[in-house]
Write a structure and sequence with these properties.
Blueprint: E1 7-11, E2 17-18, E3 34-38, H1 41-45, H2 81-87, E4 96-101, H3 107-120, E5 125-129, H4 134-143, E6 151-155, H5 159-169, E7 173-177, H6 194-211, E8 215-219, H7 232-236, E9 239-245, E10 251-259, E11 267-273, E12 276-279, E13 298-305, E14 308-320, E15 328-331, H8 335-348, E16 356-362, H9 374-386, E17 394-396, E18 399-400, E19 406-407, H10 412-421, E20 426-428, H11 435-443
Parallel strand pairs: 4-8, 4-9, 5-6, 5-7, 7-8, 15-16, 17-20
Antiparallel strand pairs: 1-2, 1-3, 9-10, 10-11, 11-12, 13-14, 14-16, 18-19
C-alpha cells in the first residue's frame, strides 16, 4: 500500500513552513498567507544535504576592492531632470528600479516619457506592457509627443517572451509595466501571486546584472498603500520609488524610499497636463494664492521636502459654532497637530477658540507633515480670530511646544534663502521668542 505524501503549509510571503494550517504566519505575522504543498524529501526528513564548493577561477575570483573599477557603473541621465534628482543622478547600469503608485496617478505616463526621451538621445529602449496593447501605447505616445524610432513596444505577459524580446532588441533600457502582470509558465499560480512575482523579479534582476542593463519595473499597490506581492521584492531591487498625488490636483511627487546609489530624501515634482506629464523645477508658486488685497487667516511657511525647500500657504477660517461640539476640519495638515495647537493657543496665548468652528487647509493640495509648519498654522488661526491680515512679505516657520515655546527647526538657512528668493523679507521664527511675541509681531506689522 502506497504511503500518502506528507504535506506542509508554507507562507507565501516569507517561506515559513508549518506542519498544519494556522491563520497567522509565525515568522512575518501576516494573516491567511499559508498555502498547502507537498513537503520536500530532504526537508520532510529533516536531513540537510552537503553542498560541494565550486572551483572559482578567472575573472569570477574575488579581488581586493581597490582593484575593482567603477568606470562602468556611472549613472546615466534619463533626460527627465526631476526623475534624475530622485534616482541620485540617473540610472546606473545594471540597476533595477521599482516604481509604485496608486492606479491612475500617472506611472505609465511618466515612464513612457522617460523611455521616449532616452530613445530620442540615441539609445535603444524596450517598453514591455502587460496591461496595454501596443496600439494603446502608441495612442498615448502620440498625445504626449513621445515617438521615437529607437523606442520599441511589446505587449507580453509571459516571462520567457519578455526575455526573448530583450535578446532580440538588445536595448539600453527596459521598462516593464507591470511586474504583477508577468508570469512564468514553469510555476503554478496566476500572475501576481507571490511566487510568480519572486520568480519574475529574480530573472529580470539576473539579466540586469549580467548585461549591465538598467530595468525599471512598475509595481501595483494594495488598498493600504503598500507594494503588492512579497516584501522580498523591495529587498531585491536597487531603488524603490513611490509616485503619489491627489486625484483632485495636477501635482505629482516621486519619492525615493530606498536607493543604493543616492539619497533617500529627494523629491521630484511633476504636473499632469492634457499633453502628458511636465516637470516642475520650481513648485513653490503652485502652493501660493496671493490676492492683491491681504486677507485675514492666511500665512506662508517654508517646508522642506527631502532636501528641497518649498513655499506653502496655510489658510484658516474661524467662525462661531452653532453646535455644542465645535467642528475641527483640516485638509493637508495633521488633524491631531491642529488640535494640539488650538489647545496651546487658548492656554498660552489667551486665544478663545473653544467655542469656535475651526477650518485649516493648505493651498494647491500640498500635504505638510513636518512640525516646522506649527507657527504658520498658529499665525493663520490667530489672524482669522482677530480678522486681521498679515503682511504679504512675511513667512513663519517653527515648532511650537506645549509650553508655548518656539523651537528651532532643521535647515533654517535653506528656508531663509528660499523665502528671500521669492521676495519674503520678513521672517517670524524661533528668534523672536515665545508664542505670544511671535503672534504680536505677525499681527502688528
Amino acid at each position: 500500500m502506497a504511503t500518502r505524501a506528507k504535506s506542509e503549509f508554507t507562507c507565501s510571503e516569507c517561506g515559513w513552513a508549518s506542519a498544519k494550517w494556522v491563520g497567522q504566519c509565525g515568522e512575518c505575522q501576516q494573516w491567511n498567507t499559508l498555502v498547502e504543498g507537498s513537503a520536500g524529501g530532504a526537508r520532510g526528513l529533516g536531513v540537510v544535504k552537503s553542498i560541494k564548493p565550486t572551483n572559482i577561477v578567472g575573472s569570477a575570483a574575488a579581488r581586493p576592492i581597490t582593484e575593482v573599477s567603477s568606470q562602468n557603473v556611472a549613472s546615466r541621465s534619463t533626460r527627465v531632470a526631476e526623475f534624475d534628482r530622485v534616482l541620485g543622478g540617473g540610472l546606473v547600469p545594471g540597476a533595477v528600479v521599482l516604481l509604485s503608485g496608486e492606479p491612475g496617478v500617472g506611472k505609465s505616463t511618466l515612464l513612457l516619457e522617460v523611455a521616449a526621451k532616452t530613445a530620442q538621445s540615441g539609445l535603444r529602449v524596450l517598453y514591455v506592457s502587460g496591461e496595454e496593447s501596443v496600439g494603446q501605447i502608441r495612442l498615448r505616445a502620440e498625445r504626449t509627443s513621445a515617438l521615437s524610432e529607437n523606442l520599441f513596444l511589446a505587449s507580453e505577459t509571459d516571462l520567457s517572451s519578455v526575455l526573448g524580446q530583450i535578446d532580440a532588441i538588445t536595448p539600453d533600457l527596459v521598462v516593464v509595466d507591470s511586474v504583477q502582470t508577468i508570469s512564468a509558465a514553469e510555476l503554478d499560480g496566476a500572475a501576481g501571486m507571490p511566487a510568480q512575482i519572486r520568480e519574475v523579479a529574480a530573472n529580470l534582476i539576473r539579466v540586469a546584472k549580467e548585461r549591465d542593463l538598467p530595468i525599471v519595473l512598475v509595481g501595483h499597490v494594495t488598498k493600504d498603500g503598500t507594494i503588492a506581492g512579497p516584501r522580498v521584492l523591495e529587498h531585491l531591487v536597487d531603488v524603490v520609488c513611490h509616485f503619489e498625488g491627489d486625484r483632485q490636483t495636477s501635482l505629482r511627487f516621486v519619492r525615493s524610499l530606498k536607493n543604493r546609489f543616492g539619497p533617500t530624501d529627494e523629491v521630484g515634482c511633476f504636473e499632469m497636463t492634457g499633453e502628458g506629464i511636465r516637470e516642475v523645477s520650481d513648485p513653490s508658486g503652485l502652493f501660493l494664492s496671493r490676492p492683491e488685497v491681504p486677507v485675514s487667516g492666511t500665512c506662508v511657511t517654508v517646508t522642506v521636502e527631502g532636501r528641497r525647500a518649498l513655499i506653502a500657504e496655510v489658510q484658516a477660517l474661524v467662525v462661531k459654532s452653532s453646535s455644542p461640539q465645535p467642528r475641527r476640519v483640516v485638509n493637508g495638515v495633521d488633524s491631531s497637530r491642529v488640535a494640539m495647537l488650538l489647545a496651546v493657543l487658548e492656554r498660552r496665548a489667551g486665544l478663545r477658540v473653544g467655542e469656535m468652528d475651526v477650518y485649516v487647509s493648505t493651498v494647491g493640495g500640498v500635504r505638510i507633515t513636518e512640525p516646522a509648519a506649527d507657527l504658520a498654522i498658529a499665525v493663520a488661526i490667530a489672524s482669522a480670530v482677530h480678522d486681521k491680515p498679515i503682511a504679504h512679505d512675511l513667512v513663519a516657520y517653527g515648532e511650537i511646544s506645549l509650553a508655548g515655546e518656539i523651537r528651532k527647526v532643521s535647515n533654517s538657512k535653506q528656508r531663509a534663502n528660499e523665502a528671500a528668493r521669492l521676495g519674503f523679507t520678513r521672517q517670524v521664527d524661533s528668534e523672536v521668542g515665545g508664542l505670544k511675541q511671535a503672534l504680536a509681531l505677525a499681527l502688528n506689522w
